[in-house]
Automatic annotation (TrEMBL):
The protein, known as: YitT family protein
Predominant subcellular localization, coarse grouping: membrane
Keyword field contains Lipid metabolism: no
Organism of derivation: Cytobacillus pseudoceanisediminis
Entries under Pfam families matching the protein: DUF2179, YitT_membrane
Domain DUF2179 span(s) in chain numbering: 234-288
Membrane topology: Multi-pass membrane protein
Gene3D superfamilies: 3.30.70.120
CDD domains reported in the protein's UniProt record: YitT_C
């Protein structure tokens, strides 16, 4: 399962790790790798459903050669340990090595364990969810379980394609190959499992409290700002703006909320000024200030 390397690097803290934080990181990388192994060996592989990236290639090679999957996962990722060490750093490379080693060992140990389900839809959905939780956990604590994106970043420097586009082409090739090696319905199930895993990773990394920015333009800006402070417990900032068409001075309210507070914010604005302009956007990261979770009332 290849995922955003930028996210993995962002989660990776190179300095200031206490023994407690280091132990926590190791624990969750191991747990995440085990979960991915369970998703692969107990749901996907027995039902001939693929993952993307290096793991997908490993599944195809394992099926064609008869060798156990864990050996291919480990061997094919070896070059990326070195590349990760050179391009990103020692901490990331060691975290990735730990994750890949545990993933490989888990798939080897579970190879002969009876599968959880032979229903293709259940295997696709739950396999994707379990795999996504595992990968997301490893990324959140600074590791990676697939070297595809490191390769994509290197190729990106020489080709006029983005990293995401290169990965997409790579996975299209893998899933197309799955159609020939297994069957086309298995290829379609594989794409569905990949999509479910990708969305699960997003939830695990960002959490349900993913941050959002809100921009509000209203004549009732003071009342709306005070209501946000009182009812959401969120700080607001008033910005000066000017209407391009009318030339009138405008007050713009800016605040940061969580995903769970978006509906409440909309109801506050609608209640006070139904004609107010409201724009809400996702935020990748929030630091500093007074952004703390408070009760909604």
């Amino acid at each position: 399962m290849n995922v955003s390397l930028e996210t993995a690097v962002g989660a990776n803290v190179h300095k200031g790790l206490t023994k407690g934080k280091l132990a926590k990181r190791i624990f969750f990388i191991i747990l995440g790798a085990i979960l991915m192994g369970v998703g692969i060996e107990e749901f996907l592989v027995p039902n001939k459903i693929l993952d993307g990236g290096i793991v997908g290639i490993s599944i195809i090679l394992s099926h064609m050669s008869g060798w156990k999957l864990g050996w291919f996962i480990f061997i094919l990722n070896i070059p990326f340990f070195y590349i990760g060490y050179k391009q990103i750093g020692k901490t990331f490379a060691l975290s990735t090595l730990l994750g890949i080693a545990v993933l490989s060992a888990t798939t080897l140990l579970l190879h002969d364990v009876p599968v959880f389900t032979e229903d293709l839809l259940l295997a696709t959905v739950f396999g994707g969810i379990v795999l996504g939780f595992g990968v997301g956990m490893v990324i959140r604590y600074g590791g990676s379980l697939d070297g595809t994106e490191i390769l994509a970043i290197l190729v990106n420097k020489k080709l006029p394609f983005s990293v995401g586009e290169i990965i997409m082409f790579f996975n299209v090739f893998i899933f197309a190959t799955a159609g020939f090696v297994f069957s086309w319905d298995r290829a379609m199930y594989s794409i569905l499992a990949y999509f479910i895993a990708f969305k699960t990773i997003d939830v695990v990394i960002s959490g349900l409290d993913e941050s959002k920015s809100a921009w509000i333009i209203s004549e009732q800006h003071k009342i709306i700002g005070e209501a946000i402070l009182a009812r959401l417990g969120r700080g607001v900032t008033y910005l000066n703006g000017e209407g391009a068409y009318t030339g009138d001075d405008k007050k713009v309210i800016f605040c940061v909320i969580t995903r769970l507070e978006e509906a409440k914010l909309k109801s506050i604005v609608e209640e006070i000024d139904p004609s107010a302009f409201l724009a809400v956007a996702d935020i990748a990261e929030v630091r500093g200030g007074r952004f703390k979770k408070k009760a909604i009332h």
